[in-house]
Amino acid sequence: MSLSTVPEDNSRNFWLDRPVLVTGSTGILGSWLTLALLDLGANVVSVIRDWVPQSQLVRSGGIGQVKVVRGDITDAALMERVMAEYEIDTAIHLAAQTAVGIANRSPISTFETNIKGTWVLLEAARRWPGLTRVIVASSDKAYGAHAMLPYAEDAALQGRHPYDVSKSCADLLAQSYASTFNLPVTITRCANMYGGGDLNWNRIVPGTIRSVLRGERPVVRSDGTPLRDYIYVQDIVSAYLTLAEAMEGDLYRGEAFNFGMDAPVSALDMVSTIVRLAGQIELQPQVLNQASNEIQEQYLSSEKAHNLLGWQPRYSLEVGLRETIEWYREFLGTPPNAGTEGNKGTEGN
Asked: In this structure, is residue 271 part of a structural domain?
């Protein structure tokens, strides 16, 4: 990744030697966030259920600098032990079953991980007096479908399908612990995240990139018209660091923050952009129009994060996608294509 997400010296002083628990640290966001925290000198503890050798945290060697606890976040005794024995100061709860298709096929396991896992984490946090801040990952999916767009943080949480419901519930649980027990917890609701390290090939970005790098036509499961906001993982890393640092003195307890680009694009436009940036314009997408349980338009307003936290995304869609394509090119062992546009481009929106 060409642009550093590690903040200035005052941020380094904030994180230096701070005991930080990261759940879900082998996922796309967890990997890059953990690596950033290690760069800042944090004392990172990770609860890991499944060993994922392809994870960016493992591939980078960063896992060797982390205190790894093997277990399940739904294990209450385990989570209480982790909080107390490692004297956790900051907990960042990212662990979740994030695949919508899996949630539709296997809702119970999704509810166990996403809902029970959240209340177990929050209860362990409540019972450990040394904790100063908790961040719980919700999602733009927690809002469900609304006629009024973009979603602001005061919009109702009304998920209807299993994954969306699990995130609505986790979000409300965090708010409950903040209101009832004064737990210093905030909530993040992020737009569709992409970047190197996403190994869920059913998602539009990694699936499309893998297809085009292998010379195959990419597949669009919907009719191509659903609108989503896509944000690069490194911008979300900076969002989490910024939010955690802003939570001094119980500030923003129980509040939620949206993080996105505020620039929705259609599924077909997203696929077409990837095809162009990969230099494979002859690979026209196959539009299947077979998607179910999909919300047609779903995107956020990040105005609150801009105004209160001073956070802004640093990567345009094209710059983020170029870096992402290069990550997968190396990961898949695909040689550069003579027709690719390369890595030229400017930062910003």
From this structure: no
Q: State pLDDT tens for residues 40-71.
A: 999 999 999 999 999 999 999 999 999 999 99
The span from the CA of 97 to the CA of 74, in Å, is 13
The distance of Cα 132 from the centroid of its chain, to the nearest Å, equals: 22
Q: Which residues partner with 192 through β-bridges?
A: 230
237-280 pLDDT, tens per residue? 999 999 999 999 889 999 999 999 999 999 999 999 999 999 99
**Overall number of domains in the chain:** 1
Q: Is the dihedral of CA 313, 319, 325, 330 positive or negative?
A: negative
Catalytic residue among 163, 177, 230, 240: 163
In single-letter form, the type of residue at position 184 comes to P
**Of 164, 163, 127, nearest to 144 (Cα)?**
164
- Report the amino acid identity of residue 238: S
Please state the separation of Cα 280 from the chain's center in Å: 28
Told to judge if 163 belongs to the known catalytic residues of this protein, a careful annotator would answer yes
Q: Is residue 96 domain-resident?
A: yes
Q: Are 180 and 254 in contact (CB under 8 A)?
A: no
